[in-house]
Amino acid sequence: MKENKILKLIHVAWRERWSDSQFGINIKNVLPRGVSGDVYNLADCILQQALIGSTANPLVLNYLKHSLCAHLVSHAAVLRRIAKYEHFERLYCTTSLLDFLDSVIAGATCRAKTEEAILPGAVVSLINWLMQVFAMITAHYEIHRELNSEQSYMLGQCCLVIEKVIKNQFLMATIYVGCHEDPDYYGQIRERYAAIKTSLTNSNFSPTHPSIETYLHQLAYVDVHHLDMPLLDIQPKPEPVTYCVQPLLTVDVLLNPCNDTSYYVAKMQMVQRLKKFSNTRLFYEIVRAGFVSLSNVMETTHDTMWGAFTFFKVPQIIKQLQALNRAVGEQTPNDYIPEVVEAIELLLEDKLLLDFMDSKCSCNIIEYLLNDWTKQHLVNDMHVKHFAAQREGTSVLLQKRDASAQAPSIINFIIRAEVPLSGVLKTLSTDYNKVQEALLGVLCQVLVGNSFDLILSVATVEGRLKTFVSRLIQCNENSKQVPGEMGKASIIRSTLFDVSFLMLTFIVQTYGSDAVLSNNGDSFFEKWVRECMVERNKPKNPRNMIVMCDENMVDELLLNLSKPEPQLKNINITWQDICLNLPGVLYQVLIAWEKETLSSGDVKNILDNIKRRLFSFSVCATSFLCAYMCSVKENELLKPLNMIQQFLAPPSAEEMSSQENIKERLGLSFQIIRKMQHDVRPTVNPKSRSITLVQNLVSQTPLMDQFRDVWRTVNENGWLPIRAAQILESLLHAGGAAWLTTRLLEEILKCKYIHDMMKTMDIVFAILHLDIELSTEALLTQVVPAMIQNRQGEDIDEPHLHVLARLCVYCIISAVETRHYRNFSYQKKRSRSHDGDDMDLNNTVKMRKINTDSSDNSSSNDFLGDSNLFNTHASTHLRNTPNQLKESLQNSIQYIFKIFQQFLQTDKLSLKVYFVYQFVSLLVECGQERVRLVLNLLPTNLISNLLKVMLTDQISVGLIARLYDLRTSCGRQAAIADLTLWRNLKLKEQSIHL
């Protein structure tokens, strides 16, 4: 009924030649108050009357334009109706519609929610219609090889409308939203564009408009990159010096030395994206970080670990990075990687570092490095000669030094350790019954000097540590006592049991049981570790150990051990059972000593008898005593402490000569016992290298003073020394994530210059990877909100706010990606982590062979063998985005978004509001689609409230379009709502200026 009235009114208006204002006044009498003309198809009615004849009625079209200006009809309805016009043979009607579009398209917007719902589809339909018009003209030219004046004018107007659409960011963003709404329909536009392109090629037709082909391509393949988004990057280009890579690798090697190469590759890819590094720059930073860290370490353990990492792990990281970042179809030389050669050129400019490394390692470090890299086809012999010539002067100086003054090169030992490791693995895999004596000799030789450290370091970085551990476990299983066995065979078996047990215990102490043992292993050693071994951050209940003991065995052991010279070999209890039942024995001894039933001399005799036969017994006894000490009061610690000290007392000369290989086993057992004791009752000055290795540092100095001292060292160096990383990790555990994060952020706020702020932020970002997930949660929920709210305007101002926002975004991205690529890591994170989630074991790449015997390498998965295999598997793992956030991290992000909503409950622009803008913009700029799960947590009205306060010149449609997941209807609805708000605010600003 209403449509009939509208049509009649249009007829009357045309007959009586009403003006636009007259039509507007009278149409309002027909439309109900407050109701849009779209409800009654006003645009459709007007266009029906305007396009009846062969020529469009200009008066009626003016009525439509007036209705648009008076908001009686929406742009969405008008564009959708125009897109339905198919009588292209009526050139004048089509041209009139193009003229009409040319006059109104620049002001296209929405005024109501109902219009927002149909605008994306309407604009996409209009693009399809424009493509049809263009295709019709090009097809006519292809056939007739000419255009008449009307067709030429029509083509020109079509190009003008397309150009206005392209240059209108709001419309481009609307098209981008609309193409996700109906992908199949948008596919028709691409097909139409392909037909136009073919037609233009076949006819050799060149439109007068110079850029129209580019515009058509942008419309057919509209992408988010076509939408403007001003970058907040203070340094749009990669900074000349970066302070992020070395500290990050230091923390990772410190905490996760067992991790698969893909773990480090993922971390470096994250840095590459954040810093916009080229492959050359990234490779240079990785190699330089290895040298800087290696130049700092003073202890053999860290020397071997960093040396092995630099020489064995870094080449594999580079190879995988190069394979991942290689463009599809890109051809690279077979014998070298060009980016690696360029990276070495950059490295040679750092002469001071290389000179120091040459002196420290007593060798030409570059030559050593590249000689190994030629075998892996990172460089070729020609490059080695070229770079060696550039370092020739330094090499001559090294040769002239007094040979007696040169320390043996640790690099030589590291590289040579690869062969002994393979030999040990091969011997361990041989039939146990045939090689017991030879195996004992090999294992005892491993414990001489620092050979064990070297082999562990190489095994760790080459991904063969679990293989080493599994074969040691099998050796320990095979060496369990056989009842009735006597003589030399029994002695060899017991020594093998002792050596393998001690080596395994040391490895578990160093790397954590989660990193090297399977979850449900049924071997004796794995059972003992699960139930009886004390580990850092994994306390054991001593009562559970006691309950496991067999009362009869405990009584028999007590009776035998109480004798002056016990004969353990004559009792009917095996070595493995003694290890499991010692907790019951020691508990009875402690009770009897407390009740003074046993004297100190009696206790000493029992303890001496325990450690006299096998050093494994001392370790098992100490493990129980340490667990016991954790469960008693302070005044009850003296006796168990004295008992542990008795196990550390050196044996007599007679005892030292009574057993073979006693010195190596004794030294290793002392290290293990000191480490166990230190975990429970830390000493101020630990002497054992094993204690230093696991960063269990304790000091009577206040935490704040310790932090100041260590930060002074870090800040002066510009990189993170190993010792500083250890202290910071201890401070993290002692003070908590919030405390350490606050202290680190305070150091950023102390900086006055942008360069210093960015340098400090990079170092802080790397340090927070000591526990990135916990640190990020503390940063978002406790540290940053408190700083922004309580200290705004004091010492937190621009550019401090920008740097804080960037740090928050970096941490969120890293926390999200860390959880993702952990699932594809070869190992679990060490037990020191606060996150107890398990990591999957995925073996995707093969290790290169180091000798002809493949038995030693078959179980390793850490080295790149086939680039095609890697590209099809590992790259998929590393490039996929996570599909789920950790609950605590999600809650932290939601919390800070709620804080942002509180900041935006105002119409006044403030530093708080600007911080919100920077945070959201940097999240999109740095994270892109990889933080989609984070962006999905944005509150509904956050961006709209931000738009009302901020200037539209700062918030762009490119930012808005990137914020939402346009694959979902909710995401598209939110995006078009914010885009429309942005558009209307923009039009309002323009009208004010007019």
From TrEMBL:
Q: Where in the cell is it found?
A: Nucleus
Extract the InterPro entries matched here: Mediator_Med24
- Superkingdom of origin: Eukaryota
Q: Name one GO cellular component term.
A: mediator complex
One GO BP: positive regulation of transcription initiation by RNA polymerase II
Q: What is its main location?
A: nucleus
Q: Name one Pfam family in it.
A: Med24_N
The UniProt keyword set, sorted, is: Activator, Nucleus, Transcription, Transcription regulation
Provide the GO MF annotations for this entry: transcription coregulator activity
Family membership noted in the UniProt record: Belongs to the Mediator complex subunit 24 family.
Q: Which PANTHER family match?
A: MEDIATOR OF RNA POLYMERASE II TRANSCRIPTION SUBUNIT 24
Q: What is this protein called?
A: Mediator of RNA polymerase II transcription subunit 24
Q: Which organism is it from?
A: Glossina morsitans morsitans
